[in-house]
Amino acid sequence: MTATPMARSGGSACVADLLAEFQDHERGLPVSAAVGSLASWWRSTRPPGSSDRRARRSDPLPGPRRPAWLHVRVKPFLLLASRAEDEAADEEYAAFLRATGLPEGRLHRVRMEAGPLPPIDLDRYAGVLVGGGPYNSSDPEETKSADQRRVEAELRGLLHQIVARDFPFLGACYGVGTLGVHQGAVVDSRYAEPIGAVAVRLSDDGRKDPLLDGLPEEFDAFVGHKEACRVLPPAATLLAGSATCPVQMFRVRTNLYATQFHPELDRDGIITRVRVYRHAGYFPPAELDEVVARLHRARVSEPPRILENFVARYG
Residue 186 forms beta bridges with which residues? Predict the structure, then answer.
């Protein structure tokens, strides 16, 4: 995007143009640093003796003093999805938007199941999110579809880069089967959980982790999975668990996270998913109404804070 020159007509800067340039920066400086530099630059443009609150329209701005970075563009996040059903895929994207608070322009989505993964330039993004999906990494290789084998191979290649760089990453549900397996976890069906809400409890490390800042020591979260992490990766730190699934969240290095529960899901979102996947083996189809009634009684409110914290920390 080409920046519009700063308007200096009448001796005062046009705020709209300033903000447009602020959002157009190609270097992706941290927002806190950019805001501080922006404030310093603005103060430097005021005539001697004037105040920020009452600027005289007739005072000319001094010569070109704006900082070299003043073409600020905040980087978007990348969501890697793998749900083939449009209703479920679109609900998932909407759920991540709600939970992160990001506008659509700052959450790019790639549907991995739809075709080969395009080249991903990590430098364009603030962080990578991975949604859930129908794939189970622990399924026997001969039972996996060609699409699943392709998606797993492409994700494996991308994870090589992400892990090597300790690049901000958060995988929800399928994140355990991707980041976990990549890092040497044992993932199998031993701790599978039916669809519903479970009580998740933070570990000592979890209580200190910045992504879990503001969450209570115990909170309810939505789950529903056929596989889970039975043995943590050797280099992983356990952040949370539950009575039915000991590994609900872990961290690798400093910036790589995976959750078994769904931090993006609210009640309406999970009900949409159970209707879409009622024949996918998570529960007998005849029990759909019972599952929906149970979900209506659930009180899940805390997990989206994890995604809010992720965006605040890395965005």
Answer: 231
**Is residue 229 within 8 Å of 179, Cβ to Cβ?**
no
Residue 255 CA: distances (Å) to CA of 154, 185, 307: 21, 18, 13
Reply yes or no on whether the pLDDT at 59 is more than 80.
no
Q: Phi and psi of 103, rounded to 5°?
A: -75, 165
The answer to whether 180 touches 200, Cβ cutoff 8 Å, is no
Angle between helices 288-297 and 267-276 (to 10 degrees): 170
Spatial separation of the C-alpha atoms in residues 10 and 63, rounded to whole Å: 15
- Residue 262: HSE in the Cβ half-sphere, 13 Å Cα cutoff: 23
Residue 232 CA, distance from chain mean position: 22
Q: What is the pLDDT of residues 125-174, one digit of tens each?
A: 999 999 998 899 999 999 999 999 999 999 999 999 999 999 999 999 99
Distance between CA 283 and CA 287 in Å, rounded?
A: 7
Please give the full DSSP string across 181-219, using - where no structure is assigned. Answer: HHTT-EEESTT-EEEEEEEEEE-HHHHH-GGGTT--SEE
pLDDT digit string, tens, across residues 185-216:
999 999 999 999 999 999 999 999 999 999 99
What's the pTM value of the predicted model, to 2 decimals? 0.78
pLDDT of residue 58: 36
Question: Residue 130 and residue 145: Cα distance in Å, rounded?
Answer: 20
Q: Could you tell me the maximum CA-CA distance found in the chain, to the nearest angstrom?
A: 77
pLDDT of residue 133: 86
Asked whether 303 and 95 are in contact (CB, 8 A), the reply is no
DSSP-assigned letter for residue 247: -
